[in-house]
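Example with several molecule types.
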Amino acid sequence: MTDFVMEARHVYKAYGIKNAKKAEKTGAGVDVKHVVEAVKDVSLQIRKGDIKLIFGPSGSGKSTFLRCLAMLEIPDKGEIYLGNECLTKPGVDLNKARARIGFVFQHIYLFRHLTALGNVELALRQVLKLPKEEARKRALDALSEVKVTDCASKYPAQMSGGQAQRIGIARALARNPDIILLDEPTSALDPELTGEVIDTLRDLAKEGTTMLIVSHEMPFAREVAEEMIFYDEGRVVETGPPSQFFNAPNTDRAKQFMTRIINRTTRE
Amino acid sequence: MPLAFIRVYEKETSFLVDAYEKIFRGVPEIVLMLLFFFGLGPYLRFPFGNAFFVAAFVLGLRSGANQSQIYRGAIQGVGNEQMIAGMSVCLSKWRSIWHIMIPQVFTFSTPGLGSEYALLIKDSAYVYVIGALAEVMTRAIQIRTSPPYDAVTPFILAALIYIVLTFPIAFWLDKWGNKRKKKIGL
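Resulting structure tokens for the full complex:
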């Protein structure tokens, strides 16, 4: 029995492996450049109510790792546990498992042909098989939780980025997932809209929602995160409470990165 | 449309669809009709002895191949992100296709579908080669050589009939697509 909501053990994911294997078979020689190792042996545990924040340079594989956790990308090696269930075992009903994981995308990805309400309702009706009235009620509840009830009948293209992203969060919330994974939820928004979304996340944090967030919003991190994870070149470089990173990171790489981020924030 | 989705999302079987599309898009309808009616018809027997059936069969499959291409473009236009978003709210692959992709793909493909429909109607004119080749030719010559020696009016009339058949549907499809696109703000 584990008391983790989600656990990753030695997850490994690389792109271009198939081509490399093919090349090996045909004797063409493996072009190492074509294999990109996005996640190299990453382990992570999340308990109920945890709020953890992953940060690190672009292209270091944070998003890939997050997608692996939600099994939107299948890891090449390693195991992912959701509660006691191993998601990486063959034959696991992934759609069922994904119902317990909420995912928020950097570029939002709302369903463009559906209204805000429709976006939130779809999974409730199709996957949880809720009757129409109940699905509607729960969708409206989720929308009011992120304070966008006034957008309920708008289409994604008619909303601001901040509204759209909050609906993205509502879509993830509506199923009452065990954990919500957020992949840079604010990085595609301008500073003003970022505020709206951060406020929403802060509210969720207060309610004890379990969250794993990829973000570079440092003031927010300092305020809500229990643990920060510095991620670079496919590995976890350093883990610790925000105070550790803001005062004296243990590794040089983290020190360097924090200095840069803090400089940027103060300049703004 | 199912063919287009197989082509995009089922890597293992997509080569079959690919082969079908290449054949039916690459060979002229006339050749296909002659092949199926006079060439293969006697071997395939019923219902390939029936000119109407062969015409519908060939034109249908040809149009299917073209439509599959149109939808494939639209699927790629909608983008894989929408599929991933569907998976993230735990819809299965085929459910995502049904609830998320198809409504958007259809909106994106209306202009292409309109022109494909017009092509299909026009190509039905080729059916004479297996139906009433001799009949059509004799009539055409008759029109020219018998009083009132006017070959323009009958053919203009025929052309008008084709326009009446093709125009409204293409027009309506386009209009519907644009309205829909405007509504969802694309």
